UniProtKB/TrEMBL annotation:
It comes from Nepenthes gracilis (Slender pitcher plant). Pfam families: BAH. This is BAH domain-containing protein. InterPro entries: BAH_dom (IPR001025), BAH_sf (IPR043151), Znf_FYVE_PHD (IPR011011). One of its GO terms (molecular function) is zinc ion binding. Residues 21-136 form the BAH domain. PANTHER family: OS08G0421900 PROTEIN.
Length: 208
């Protein structure tokens, strides 16, 4: 009579000796890519399973980088931006290279320093349809584009609107175009040429 095959069983955690790291369910991990020239894959561990012969597999949910999606890289995508995919997979636990942290937008912006294992996720991505959830996010800049977490955001001293680094590069880091125009109009109405001169000096002083 043939012996019954030992069944696979679930694990709460697993220690990968090669990297001396314990992986738990719910951890985000870096996984070895098929091509060494490419960056590590990022995934969330959904399940850890041990086989009869001691081999351990992980059930993962993949994260995609912008360049891996249908729409590709957009202006507001940060260098550490990831999208939580609906693509699930089973991989050998030995392909895990280490742990990482995938932050929400709010927690990412509170970081004092961004490490090589820090990522940000604002969207979920449908692997089959190419659709994103949510399909829109809040905009903070006058350019009406979502905020790129890599860029410096400054605030206009006149109206408190936020401006991204594109405006800053145009030497408008302290006044948005609408506020600067409004200030000039107010001074023209008062007919005070000296005050207009002072405004010009103030703008010059701020940008240098």
């Amino acid at each position: 009579m043939a012996k019954a095959r030992a069944s696979r069983h679930d694990l709460d955690s697993y220690t990968i000796k090669a990297i001396n790291t314990t992986i738990n369910i719910g951890d985000c991990v870096l996984m070895r890519p098929a091509e060494s020239s490419k960056p590590s894959y990022v995934a969330s561990v959904e399940k850890i399973e041990a086989g009869a012969r001691g081999n351990v597999t992980v059930h993962v949910r993949w994260y995609n980088r912008p360049e891996e999606t249908t729409g590709g890289q957009r202006k507001f995508h940060g260098s550490t931006e990831l999208f939580l995919s609906d693509h699930y997979d089973i991989q050998s636990a030995d392909t895990i290279e280490g742990k990482c942290i995938v932050h929400s937008f709010k927690s990412y912006m509170k970081l004092d320093a961004v490490g090589t294992d820090d990522f940000i996720c604002r969207f979920e991505y449908s692997f089959s349809t190419g659709a994103f959830t949510p399909d829109r996010v809040a905009v903070y800049c006058n350019c009406e584009m979502p905020y790129n977490p890599d860029d410096l955001m400054v605030q206009c001293e006149g109206c408190s609107d936020c401006l991204d680094s594109a405006y800053e590069r145009q030497l408008l880091a302290i006044c948005c175009p609408s506020t600067l125009s409004r200030k000039k109009d107010e001074i023209y109405k008062r007919g005070n040429t000296f005050e207009l001169f002072e405004l010009s000096i103030w703008v010059f002083y701020k940008i240098v």
